[in-house]
Amino acid sequence: MATSANSKEKLVFSTGSAAPIQKISAQVLREAYYNIGFHIRVEPLPIARSLILSNKGYFDGELSRVEGIDKEFRNLLRVPVAINFIEAYAFIKNNSCSG
Questions:
Q1: Are the CB atoms for 54 and 73 separated by under 8 Å?
Q2: Is the pTM of this model over 0.90?
Q3: Tens-place pLDDT, residues 24-81
């Protein structure tokens, strides 16, 4: 696809502002979309507001959400390509759990 920098289309994505991983996700998305002819702007918002506004169509999409979020927010369609991956673990003090 041959396009000039001035002819790139623009998309605006919303994202929850609380998670630091969102900055990495935004950069991955910007680079990927730039390569196919799009400029991306990401608007960080409080998590619930971001989802609600994206679901209502105020944004072109929602960045970096967990699988299944589309069951509650039915206007959001999952794109089945991962842009990040997080492994989360819980830790407790050694003597705080018996069993």
A1: yes
A2: no
A3: 888 999 999 999 999 999 999 998 999 999 999 999 988 878 888 889 999 998 888 8
* Neighbour tally for 15: CB within 10 Å: 26
Helix residue spans in 13-88 (DSSP H): 21-34, 47-55
CA dihedral over 14, 78, 22, 41, signed as positive or negative: negative
Q: Which CATH number fits domain 1-99: 3.40.190, 3.30.1340, 1.10.760, 3.40.630?
A: 3.40.190
What 8-state DSSP symbol labels residue 60? S
Residues in the chain: 99
The answer to whether 29 touches 63, Cβ cutoff 8 Å, is: yes
The neighbouring-strand residues paired with 61 are 13
